[in-house]
């Protein structure tokens, strides 16, 4: 999965839950191994987040 696919899928899921207060672009972050939130902005960031993991916690604003 690349960055654009991820943002599209997350956006669709959010729209199913109801309207957003903000129509701006989604801000997607993930928790790294140390518990820090890391912004996702590219395909490489998606690879880093999901690399070898079965589950990833995403934070979306």
TrEMBL record:
UniProt-listed PROSITE patterns: PB1 (PS51745)
Put simply, this protein is called PB1 domain-containing protein
Q: Which organism is it from?
A: Hericium alpestre
Question: What InterPro entries does its record include?
Answer: CDC42_GEF, PB1-like, PB1_dom
Q: Where is the signal peptide?
A: none
Segments forming domain PB1? 1-61
Per its UniProt entry, which superkingdom is the organism in? Answer: Eukaryota
Which BP terms from GO are recorded? establishment of cell polarity; septin ring organization
What the entry lists under PANTHER family is as follows:
CELL DIVISION CONTROL PROTEIN 24
Supply the Pfam families for this chain.
Answer: PB1
Any single Gene Ontology cellular-component annotation: cytoplasm
CDD domains reported for this sequence: PB1
